[in-house]
Structures are given as structure tokens and as C-alpha cells.
Amino acid sequence: MRVTVIMPVYNREAFVEIALQSLLRQRDACELDLLVVNDGSTDSSPEIVNRLAREFGHIRMITTENQGVTKARNVGLNHIPANAEFVTFLDSDDISPANRLRDDLQHLQADPALEFTYGKATLTNKLDPETFEPAPEAMQITVRGIQLGAGIYRASYLRGLGSFDESLPQSEDLDFLLRAFEGNPRYRLTDTICLYYRRHSGNITLEREVAQKAFLNAIHKSLIRRKRNPALEMPQGIFDLEELKRTRMEVAW
Asked: pTM of the predicted model, to two decimals?
């Protein structure tokens, strides 16, 4: 099974090596293609990626001028190889848990009609760089949130969704996922913890006013699509929004 993982990187020298290592340790589960989009980093992130590529292979990097995460994701989509069977995502400050790829790829392999799987994420404020797990003292909550990396998508299905909406500076992931679910695709919700989402002071989603405006804009775009095409349906019961509201970890989308 050939899997492309798209990872945008912008000035993540403190985190990108651990993020890539967490994927490299899973290379026995599939034919792994780690596609790093260097979005004009000015720190040592590109050097770290190149070093890992020389050491392990499986990594290729595309460098662009700084354009923001939404455009960087589209660069990744445009460079998915023709022979890719599946695609997923991991942000450069997050970690892919051990066996994450194996656990959900088995569903897609067993059922060729499945177009994607969608699992859970553990949100935490501290990750152990040695174990690649949340630190014992860390705050954490596991939810089915709005996370691109919670899905593994057949490449053929992903190509049909089109690109990320570059009018959205944030919530481009929500818009993309809503489009993925709206058309009544064949998918499976799994209990796999697909990523450890690292909460830190550099998260762009901490820009609350921008994040909230983009979130509402993405919801409005879904409403317009469904009004124009009654065959589309708003996905219900997929994202654990109420659980996220109850936590004190203050997730801002």
C-alpha cells in the first residue's frame, strides 16, 4: 500500500524532527512517501528535513515562498504521486502515534468500497520527545475533532474533492472535511488515536478572533453548498464539539 503524508512546515525547528520520526517508525506498515512542503521557513527546519531524508529516505521536500498553511496544503495536493493509493496529513508540530497507519489502513484494505476512515485525536499540552507520547503530567483529552490527520483517504477520492479553499486563512481543514462528508461517501469512523495534537503558544488557532471568523465562514460555505444542491447533507454526530466545549483546554478552531 502506497501512502503519501502531506506535512506543511513553517519555522518548526523545535518540532519537525519528532513529527517526521513518528511517521518514519511506521514505514513497515506501508510504502511511505513523506511529502514536506517547506513554506518559506527562515529557521533550520529545511536542514533538519534534508538530514532525515538523507538518513532514512521516504522524505521529499518542496520549498516555496511563505504563502500560509492553506496554500502549502494545496502545493502538497498538487504533488501527490500518480501511484499513491492513500493520502493523509500530519502537521509539523504534532505526532503520529505508533501503529496509527497500520490500524486504519487495514479497514481500507479489507473493504475496497471505503473511501476514507476517520478516527480520533488526543489533544495535549506536553509531548515526551523520547516516548513520542503525552507526558505523564500533561493535560490531555481524546476526541473526534476537526483534524485532517484523523483521516486516511483514498487518493482517487481526495482528488475528486478539489483543493483547499485559499480564501480561508484558517478552518481550511473544516471546510475540506465538510466537503468530504457532505456527499454521503463510504467512510468508517474508527477509535484509532490518529494523532497527538500539541497545544503550544505558536498554534495559529490561538488567534481567536481570526479562528472564529474563519470557522463561521467555513460553516456558511457548507450551508450555501447544501442550499444549491439538496443532495448534499450536513454531517451529523461526527465531530465531538460539545466534548471540546466542556474541556478546559480551550480549543480554538
From this structure: 0.92
